[in-house]
Amino acid sequence: MDVRVAPHRFDRDLRVPASKSHTIRRLLVAAFADGVSAIRYPLDSLDARSCLAVCRALGAELRETAGEGGIERWDLRGLGGPGGIRRPRAPLDVGNSGTSLFLALALASLGTADITFTGDEQIARRSATPLLDALSALGVTVVSGGNGCVPITVRGPWRGGAVSIECPTSQYLSALLLAAPLAPADVVTEIDVPLLNERPYIEMTLAYLDAQRADYKRADDLSRFVVRGGTTYRPMDGPVSADFSSAAFPACAAAVSGGRAVLRGLDPDDSQGDKAFFAMLREAGCKVEWSADAVGGRLVTVEGEGRLRGGCFDLNDTPDLLPAAAVLAAFAEGETRLVNVAHARIKETDRIAVMAAELGKLGVDCAELPDGLVIRGGRPPRGGLVDGHGDHRVVMALAVCGLGARAPVIVTGAEAASVTYPGFLELLG
Predict the structure, then answer these.
(1) Rounded distance, CA 214 to CA 123, Å?
(2) What residues form DSSP beta bridges with 298?
(3) CA pair distance 121, 204, nearest whole angstrom
């Protein structure tokens, strides 16, 4: 569908949706746990539903509880370990969820049944070659389409050993780390990591291993891991943290429209790297204040005060921020450089090329670097027709751009926003 966003001030008080990264990790850990896990206030989005469908196809059992505001909890009875994996009747369709594909691939490879994964046309262009090569070296049988893309079939057992894997996306390493503890007790997996982007996501994954008392050792710089098998994942119970990646968009909306956003549910101490966006907003000239809410939680208020200013921002740890950061830069005076983020080219789209092209249609002076963007802003973009490229973060960023543009912005393919932030377009009014 197409969405038309007319210029107006964004002024909202809202609760930020749950984290996609946490929701998917919790679902997969719960699916392999021995017992019933309660996942409270999860992200109920297309990506999360794709992961949930994979878990159920492998044999996990779901009970869903809905409330007035949506899903209140998912109770998931796990498989009790890799031995409980059920042979699916059909290929497992991860939809648009790269996180679900990579993480579930590794976990499924612990079993002894042929399990095939597929996905939508964007997933069909996202290569898993480094992960598949590592799994093969660990004893897993792997069959894939061209260039390591779906359809991909894996079959265990996981025999362990030593592998070296470059991780332009942290999801490759998170996949191995989540699966390795579930191997048999006499299996040791050694992982050397000569290249690693998106380090905060690995810290997030390791927090789950710590909670499960997994037996592993790590180098301080995350360049090497030794993981011993024999762990049985235990059930979990608790709420899912709110998502800093999603929070970036209403925060950016306040910044570029001269408005105000009060964002509830975020934890500034969470491991999510995308909380760096609030430091970026402050550096660009926005007012950003953390405070306690009436029930003892935390909220952050973002106000777009006066003129925004450009700067240089290293997005290596936070590639998902690139679309929102590019829109922020379009309104900031002077030059903004978004750098060290070449891996943004291997997300749902080549986000560097896409954002340069679409902002260019709105009159923004935007140039590609091999690893980022240079944007010379300061004058509000003109209105016009732009293409969301079926990429949820691109769609949301371009819709936000319409709030501060000189004329309405029409974004095509806007339904993709529901991949991680259902209701976002309605939130913009």
Answers:
(1) 31
(2) 292
(3) 28
> Is there a contact between 229 and 182 (Cβ–Cβ < 8 Å)?
yes
Give the residue among 362, 416, 409 at the shortest CA–CA distance from 389.
416
Q: What CATH number does the domain located at 3-17+243-427 have?
A: 3.65.10.10
H/E run at residue 353: helix 351-361
The catalytic residue among 44, 320, 387, 391 is: 320
d(CA 173, CA 171): 5
Give the rounded distance of the alpha carbon of 299 from its chain centre: 22
Please list, in sequence order, all residues whose beta carbon lies within 8 angstroms of the beta carbon of residue 409, skipping any fewer than 6 positions away.
4, 5, 362, 381, 383, 384, 386, 398, 399, 401, 402
Q: State yes or no: is 320 an active-site residue.
A: yes
Cβ density class 373-394: b for 16+ within 10 Å, e for less: bbbbbbebbebbebbbbbbbbb
Q: Which CATH topology does 20-226 take?
A: UDP-n-acetylglucosamine1-carboxyvinyl-transferase; Chain (3.65.10)
Assess contact for 24 and 103: CB atoms under 8 A. yes
pLDDT digits (tens, 9 = 90+) for 256-303: 999 999 999 999 999 999 999 999 999 999 999 999 887 667 999 999
Separation between Cα atoms, residue 287 and residue 144, nearest integer Å: 49
Whether pTM > 0.85 for this model: the answer is yes
- In sign, the C-alpha dihedral spanning 65, 69, 70, 72 is negative
